[in-house]
Amino acid sequence: MAKQGISVTDIAKQLKISRITVYKYLEKAFEEAFEWVNSLSSRKKKLNSYKD
Q1: pLDDT band at 52; cut points 50, 70, 90
Q2: Count: domains in the chain
Q3: How far apart are CA 27 and CA 23, in angstroms?
Q4: Which residue range is the domain that position 30 belongs to?
Q5: What does the alpha-carbon distance between residue 52 and residue 26 come to, in Å, rounded to a whole number?
Q6: How many whole angstroms separate alpha carbon 27 and alpha carbon 34?
Q7: Do 18 and 12 meet the contact criterion of CB atoms below 8 Å apart?
Q8: Contact 26/2 with Cβ under 8 angstroms?
Q9: Is residue 52 assigned to a domain?
Q10: Is there a domain that residue 10 lies in?
Q11: 34 found inside a domain
């Protein structure tokens, strides 16, 4: 999206994530960003025990 000239603010709005997160993704190579996203879903979070 950034390569298409879409602003960071618009990318964040479309993806419903923060601008800071968009900047973090843009700093990483594709493979590195892909691994980072996959690691987020496997991390334990404090509120997981309160899920349904």
Answers
A1: low
A2: 1
A3: 6
A4: 2-40
A5: 34
A6: 12
A7: yes
A8: yes
A9: no
A10: yes
A11: yes
In a domain, 35, yes or no: yes
Q: Which two tokens stand for residue 38?
A: 């996959």
Whether this model's pTM surpasses 0.70: no
Kindly report, residue by residue over 7-46, the tens digit of the pLDDT: 999 999 998 989 998 998 888 887 887 787 777 666 666 6
State the angle between helix axes of 8-15 and 19-27 in degrees (0 to 180), rounded to the nearest 10: 110
CA distance 26 to 34: 12
First to last CA, the chain: 35
Contact 6, 19 (CB under 8 A): no
CA dist list (Å): 25 to 31, 34, 37, 46: 11, 9, 9, 24
Question: What is the residue type of 8?
Answer: V
Cα 26 to chain centroid distance, Å, stands at: 10
